[in-house]
Structure formats: C-alpha cells, structure tokens
Amino acid sequence: MMPHLRIRGMKKDEIVKISTELLDELVRVIEVPRDHFTIEYIESTFIFDGQENENMYPFVEVLWFKRQDKMQEVANIITTFIKPFEYDDVTVYFTDLIPEHYFENGKHF
Questions:
Q1: How far is 40 from 103, CA to CA, in rounded Å?
Q2: What is the assigned CATH class of domain 4-108?
Q3: Euclidean distance between CA atoms 10 and 89, whole angstroms
Q4: CB neighbours of residue 78 within 10 Å
Q5: Using CA atoms, how far apart are residues 37 and 64, in angstroms rounded to an integer?
Q6: CB-based contacts of 31: which residues, under 8 Å, 6+ apart?
Q7: pLDDT at residue 100 in the model
Q8: What is the DSSP string of the chain?
Q9: In sequence order, which residues have a C-beta less than 8 Å from that of residue 106 and are 6 or more positions away?
C-alpha cells in the first residue's frame, strides 16, 4: 500500500497516539484513499561512544510514487505532529518508488 511511512526513533505509543489525525491530514493533502496508507513502527536503539543513548531522534521515511509538488507540505505535516513530543530534531526522508518496479500480489501495479 502506498504511501508507506516507516518511523523509527520514537516511542510506539507516541506513533499510535498521532496516527489517526496524521492520516487525516495526509489523506487530505496527498488525495489517496485512507486504506492505501501504512504506518510501520521500527524499534531502534541509538548508540554513541560505546553505550546506548537515551536521546531518540525521529526519522520518518516516506515511500511513495513521486509527488514532488506535495513533498514540502507532507514533511511539514509529519514534523508538526511529532514536534509536540519534544524531540530536538525530526527528519523526514522521501523515497520515490518507480511504478514499473512495483508489484502487488505478483501483479504489476
């Protein structure tokens, strides 16, 4: 399903808390059906100088079919939803998928 958000560097309960309203905004801006979105929580541990670091750093990867004109607005929406959890930095990275390389259930998309 597209778009697909992979989120690491956050607590799972934080992602769950914002997921409904975040999707509301993304559906509005990207103009794709809600059931086309997925959000994936990736558990991660940050390590610095030989020890675990408690300071988490949200990194959101958005995998989608290229929507250059929507990129800034989507990045702003994601950042706006994450910032209230008081992270110093939020990174949003876009990976443009090539439709010709995308298959669903063995069938070309």
A1: 19
A2: alpha beta
A3: 11
A4: 22
A5: 10
A6: none
A7: 87
A8: --SEEEEESS-HHHHHHHHHHHHHHHHHHH---GGG-EEEEE---EEETTEEE-----EEEEEEE--GGGHHHHHHHHHHHHGGG--S--EEEEEEEPGGG-EETTEE-
A9: none
The residue assigned the tokens 């975040």 is: 22
The residue type at 95: T
Which two tokens mark 52?
């675990």
Nearest of 91, 104, 90, 100 to residue 2 by alpha carbon? 104
**How far is 1 from 80, CA to CA, in rounded Å?**
24
Domain coordinates of the chain in residue numbers?
Answer: 4-108
CB–CB of 10/40 below 8 Å? no
pLDDT tens track for 6-59 = 999 999 999 999 999 999 999 999 999 999 999 999 999 988 899 988 888 999
Helices 71-82 and 12-30 sit at what angle, rounded to 10 degrees? 150
